[in-house]
Design a protein that fits this description.
Layout (H helix, E strand, L loop, with lengths): L7 H9 L3 E3 L24 H12 L2 H4 L2 E6 H17 L5 E6 L28 H7 L4 E5 L4 H13 L4 E6 L16 E3 L18 E5 L5 E5 L9 H5 L5 E3 L3
Parallel strand pairs: 1-2, 2-3, 3-5, 4-5
Antiparallel strand pairs: 6-9, 7-8
The chain binds iron/sulfur cluster (SF4) (2 copies).
The site of one iron/sulfur cluster (SF4) has 15 residues, from helix 7.
Amino acid sequence: MCPGCPHRSVFHALNRLKAFVTGDIGCYTLGFMEPLAAMDTCICMGASIGNATGLSKLLSSEEQRQVVAVIGDSTFLHTGINGLMDMVYNSSSSTVVILDNRITAMTGRQENPSSGYTLMGADSYRVDLEQLCRAVGVQHVKVVDPYQVAATRQVLKEEMERPEVSVVIARRPCMLVKRDPVARKPAVTVDIDRCTGCRACLKLGCPAIEWRTTTEGKGVAHINSLFCVGCGLCNQVCNVDAIGDINE
Ligand code: SF4
Ligand code: SF4
């Protein structure tokens, strides 16, 4: 996933929560790869939600709560909404995460009905995902900012524990979409005196985070300033505040 990708923290959280993730087709399918390693099935467009419903019918009520379907906004509108309708209808207790990055990223950043623009770039009606989910019977719909690592994880944890269908919309535009006011911020840097070499930041799988050995032989994280967009995720997972703004 790209540096600054808004999907990263969702998969990071699902990995930590030991979720069984039924995935879908999009750039976020990369969530199956190490170190995020948080996607267990991926069959075809729209299959994530139907797979989660089916799995929930085979598992104990405790195990059902570990099942999380992950689908992107454009895939959800393409073939996911019908699966969600059936998930409610069939009284599943799974959680559905809609990764709302406001674009169809994998195939070249095309618009879709939730982006608010036509394929020609003209203003258009933007589908309200929250209302749409409620319209098919989902009683619990929450919106999170995936750049808030702890809050995102907490909401996912709470909704996974809920014995009913719930939807978590992780909303943050794709870093590559210039139209949205997603400011590329200055690269962050690692204070190598503070860094303990715990590698927690490397578990995010951000291509900007590298590993170096100092002249004293100490292994430390290093941020490649050419790639880093200053999203701040690594700063939030470092327990010793070794990662800070380059201007500090
Ligand atoms: S999380 Fe912090 S302490 Fe751990 S390797 Fe990264 S920068 Fe160093
Ligand atoms: S702030 Fe950290 S996680 Fe975000 S792009 Fe830079 S190195 Fe990657």
